[in-house]
Write a structure and sequence with these properties.
By secondary structure, the protein is an alpha/beta fold. Helix content is 49%, strand content 9%. β1, α3 and β2 form a beta-alpha-beta unit.
């Protein structure tokens, strides 16, 4: 029996070019509302995955995302946001995309069809059994990802997959399969839409929960964020001023002295 791709099924809408701008926008929004509900159904699988990631990262393990096209770009995006948001090194969550960094802006012909390339990319980073490898592919059929997951699993490395089709070939290679079934896309086959939105939601959930449990958040605040611009300096200063009941200027001086909200607070409380 051939594998059926829901992601390739015909849109529930037709004659799109005949619709008004408002009709198109309303239809897309209506479809997008289905995404969060589809993701909600995958929470048990995400919980299982995160619960296994946390102790691995506490022992020095890393998260690797692998994908092609939109899926690969979303993995790289999520990974790139961890250092500024949580003050973590950029070596702990790593996004790999078929075709390399050039594929972030331009399609690379046949890059996703190479079954060996994904594992080769992982090997260049010295992937090991403390790490977690998460494959991302709306279709669940991307060879670049499938080959990497197969090799990683054979080496005893924790593997997971994020897809929008049930029982995909990619899911068969993963220890934990996260399958958020968002249905056919508004533009038939355009998985950058609902599938991409769902992938972003799942990636947010994985890394945010992991960082919170690793102690990178206090209360509800990013106390380890990198102070890379005036907005973040102001946010950090206000955190310190509120937490320690200090004037704004004194809080800012404390932040500048110690370089992070957490270090500033710890130093003041340890006086």
């Amino acid at each position: 029996m051939a594998f059926e791709k829901i992601t390739e099924q015909s849109s529930l809408y037709d004659d799109l070019e005949k619709k008004s701008v408002k009709e198109i926008l309303t239809d897309i929004n209506q479809e997008d509302q289905k995404v969060a509900l589809a993701v909600e159904k995958t929470i048990p699988q995400i919980e299982k995955l995160v619960s296994l990631i946390i102790p691995r990262m506490e022992k020095g393990g890393r998260i690797f995302y692998l994908g092609a096209g939109t899926s690969g770009r979303l993995g790289v995006l999520d990974a790139s946001e961890i250092p500024p948001t949580y003050g973590m090194p950029n070596t702990l969550v790593i996004g790999l995309i078929a075709g390399g960094d050039v594929a972030l802006r331009n399609p690379v012909e046949n890059a996703e069809d190479n079954m060996e390339a994904g594992w080769q990319d992982l090997e260049r980073h010295g992937v090991n059994e403390k790490d977690t490898v998460i494959g991302i592919a709306a279709s669940g059929t991307t060879p670049y990802v499938i080959g990497a997951l197969r090799q990683a699993r054979n080496k005893g490395i924790l593997t997971a997959s994020i897809s929008s089709n049930p029982d995909s070939p990619m899911a068969q290679e993963a220890d934990i399969a996260i399958e958020m079934i968002v249905g056919p896309e508004y533009v038939t086959g355009s998985s950058r839409m609902k599938s991409g939105t769902g992938q972003k939601l799942v990636l947010n959930m994985i890394t945010t929960t992991t960082m919170i449990k690793l102690g990178r958040v206090k209360g509800n605040r990013m106390v380890n964020m990198q102070l890379t611009n005036a907005k973040l300096m102001d946010r950090g200063t206000r955190m310190i001023a509120e937490e320690l009941d200090l004037p704004y200027d004194q809080a800012k001086n404390l932040l500048l002295l110690h370089g992070s909200v957490k270090k500033a607070m710890d130093a003041w409380k340890g006086k």
